[in-house]
Amino acid sequence: MDIVLATRNKKKIEEIKRIVEGMQISLLALDDFPGCPEVKEDGVTFEENAVKKAEAIAKYTGKCALADDSGLEVYEMKGAPGTLSARYAGEAADDRKNIERLLYEMHSIANEKRGARFVCCIALASPDGNVRTFLGHVEGRIGKEPKGVNGFGYDPLFYPEGLNRTFAEMSDNEKDTLSHRGRALRGLQRYLTENKE
Question: What's the angle, vertex CA 103, arms to CA 102 and CA 109, rounded to 5?
Fold first, then answer.
């Protein structure tokens, strides 16, 4: 089965490819389809954004499309940065700037109130308009300074529940086993296994 990955985020593509390795699918890139539309992520939820991207790319390419929208929700900040996670410090922000803003916003939050979770919604859309979504999340807490060099996004700040290492201090395989994206993609894997044509 051919599936177009509806993202240009290289780190996200690497992670998805790693997690789906061994599944009976062939992943195609947006670059394989010149003129693919840029889809504005203006939904209120991760699910809205993922579905919007997947539907647009499936319609344009005529193939099944897989889109991911994910982010960090900090409980003491009413779920922020949420769907704005990738551009928390502005539209042109990079991981470092987003981390700096989050640490600034959380500077007065006590250790015991730094609970957060990573959320991921994977949407699989077919050209005929059929859409399935798969959700994954992982609970944890936000550290007071970045630790580790692996991963991307807020990984250097996020300690999964019960562990004393951030996602950025873990190997790829360790993170994939625990991560929100890994959990959502395993839901996709179960669906594809149960619905083989």
Answer: 105
Distance, CA of 183 to CA of 20 (rounded, Å): 11
9-28: pLDDT as tens digits: 888 888 888 888 877 788 89
What's the pLDDT score for residue 196?
Answer: 67
pTM above threshold 0.70 = yes
Question: Which one, of 184, 187, 191, lies nearest residue 137 by Cα?
Answer: 184
The single residue of 69, 95, 155, 172 carrying the catalytic annotation is 69
Region 2-194: CATH code: 3.90.950.10
> 3-state class of 115 per DSSP?
strand
Between CA 192 and CA 96, with CA 45 as vertex, the angle to 5 degrees is: 95
Instruction: Give the three-state DSSP class for 70.
Output: strand
**Quick check: is 69 catalytic?**
yes
Write the pLDDT tens digit of every residue in 97-115.
999 999 999 999 999 999 9
Inter-helix orientation angle 10-19/180-194, to 10°: 50
pLDDT of residue 9: 82
* φ, ψ at 46 (rounded to 5°): -60, -40
34 in helix, strand or coil? coil
Map residue 72 onto helix, strand or coil.
strand
| Runs of H (alpha helix) within the chain | 10-19, 46-61, 95-105, 172-178, 180-194
